């Protein structure tokens, strides 16, 4: 204890000692100073420890000074030991030793001391040392933490203008601002020559970071989407950011991938269409058998059969109710095929890869029922017939409330040079478009959770049927009503046989890169756990009201982002629980992701809360 008291007395004669200040404040004090400018401060993290901050080539270096318990001496790393930190500073003012620059200019009051004969003491004031105490300054946090904190405050306040400032490297800061349920970011730079702050691309300068923030809080600024109105709370009772430490992909793996693809893809892009017609289902390893898997499969299947089909959704009266109660007892014609005169085609309601989708009516068992008609004609029939019929062959095996069912087929060989696929009708269109139409009004979270629970339920059924969807996204979820959705578009789907646990494509196809798991991008490998990754991205789409994942990023940039262990940011206003589930879906290794049957009760719990 006496030792600590004597050290404190020594500091009274050391003007460059600044006491308990943060490394951010030390950086602000030294930024713009000459090489070798330095200060000494008390460590905030370790007892009986100090830190030496030194200006060097526009940056601020920080060295930890710790007391070695064996020799009772202060030292930097394995350097020479000294009785006090002041003696250590005096030593490195004579010889830089292991430091990158010799201590030249102590930042503090002018004084006469044992160090004065070898350095030029300067009196330099700190122009802006107060911003760290402001609620809006959040220090050196990550971009993911930034988005998460703003999301939590937006969820609570539901207003524009929520903002925070965080520190970046090399004299830059980030101003993050919520506008229209999105986080927008502006880069703030500190000019070390003029010693002013300004937003990059703007002309107006400020002598302090606090002055910049105060200005944009008072005025509707030119160039910013809205004024800074509410500071994001720095210290709150929000749950900790759930962002996990995702492992980085080995650089050589991603480099090998880029080298492998560079001959078949444009520079800086994976957004190309490859020929998917020659994909081959290669030999795969045996599917593991387990009691848990068999039980989960049985639980999913036991809830659904042909008789339960009309009860598609609570409060929804299925137009196919009478068909299921007919004498034939089936929703489709006996052999699935019907003649052209049984189908009436109306206006176009969409267009897909193989042709148009029209509103229509289909006569089955003597009754005309609303339907959607996917049509191809002319040369398209011969070119794509096999692919489309393969999609039908998968869909006709599926019978689930949250999956679009195939009702009938008009084959070109039976009814002219035309091919029509008759499907259940989802009159409100795709989920992504529905969400984007409601971005301003913000649907209740209960409704969003209802959508994703239904999608998860349908995907659990697909998994139980050994079907890998491979194209799950909000655009491929169709709206039957405002509270009832169905999974559609099985053009890329594959059925895994009992001896297989994954499908492997021979080469890339027209793939939705933004929704694909790393193993699919790297190794062309597709499993139910890959669908879980896609479900996580779909979940992100729903809670961001139809935003495009990885906005403004090319395919290679997405790969680099995933390689670095980063993931999509928390959508603004999204619940911490929902974002936690997204991150679980985006675990790098497939076996670390939850199954759809495991996700279902977690989503239901969020809805019940």
UniProtKB/TrEMBL annotation:
Coiled-coil positions: none
Region annotation (Disordered) ranges: 272-297
Gene Ontology biological process terms, A to Z: immune system process; intracellular signal transduction
Reactions mediated catalytically: L-tyrosyl-[protein] + ATP = O-phospho-L-tyrosyl-[protein] + ADP + H(+)
UniProt family annotation: Belongs to the protein kinase superfamily. Tyr protein kinase family. SYK/ZAP-70 subfamily.
Residues annotated for ATP binding in this entry: 374
UniProt-listed SMART domains: SH2 (SM00252), TyrKc (SM00219)
Gene3D superfamilies on file: SH2 domain, Transferase(Phosphotransferase) domain 1
MF terms in GO: ATP binding; non-membrane spanning protein tyrosine kinase activity
Pfam families in the cross-refs: PK_Tyr_Ser-Thr (PF07714), SH2 (PF00017)
Domain of life: Eukaryota
GO CC field: cytoplasm
Ranges for domain Protein kinase: 343-607
Protein name as annotated: Tyrosine-protein kinase
EC code(s) of this entry: 2.7.10.2
Domain SH2: 16-107, 136-218
InterPro entries documented for this protein: Kinase-like_dom_sf, Non-receptor_tyrosine_kinases, Prot_kinase_dom, Protein_kinase_ATP_BS, Ser-Thr/Tyr_kinase_cat_dom, SH2, SH2_dom_sf, Tyr_kinase_AS
This protein's UniProt keywords: ATP-binding, Immunity, Kinase, Nucleotide-binding, SH2 domain, Transferase, Tyrosine-protein kinase
Residues annotated as the enzyme's active site: 471
Record carries keyword Transmembrane: no
Keyword Cell wall biogenesis/degradation in annotation: no
Organism: Phallusia mammillata
